[in-house]
Amino acid sequence: MTAYAIAHLLSGEQHPEVAEYIERVQGTMKPFGGRFLVHNAQHETVEGVWNGDVVMIGFPDMEAARAWYASDAYREILPLRTDHLGGNVILVPGVPEGYDAAPAAAKLRAALAAESS
């Protein structure tokens, strides 16, 4: 099942090392089947506060996403970004084709009913 690496990068110091990171990061993703889904795009905040930028990378599955993030190639370049830009990064599995949220709602309703009993 498809997995995603999602980064919320906060504004920070523009630095030549950040440019080097951007130049090199795609090469670290390719061996793991990763590809940019969102990068260097303007976003529209419709709820809450979202200062900074969003980056989203798709991978074939969670194992590939984890292997990329832990890879020597990525770990080598990671400080080029983190030394100058703060942020949050998550790895998250996608949902299968045809996913229906109704069972999740039913489970929540059952848990709420059990709490109020």
From TrEMBL:
Q: Which Pfam families match?
A: DUF1330
Q: Which InterPro entries match?
A: Dimeric_a/b-barrel, DUF1330
Q: Which residues form the DUF1330 domain?
A: 2-95
Q: Which PANTHER family does the record associate with it?
A: BLR0684 PROTEIN (PTHR41521:SF4), PTHR41521
Q: What is the protein's given name?
A: DUF1330 domain-containing protein
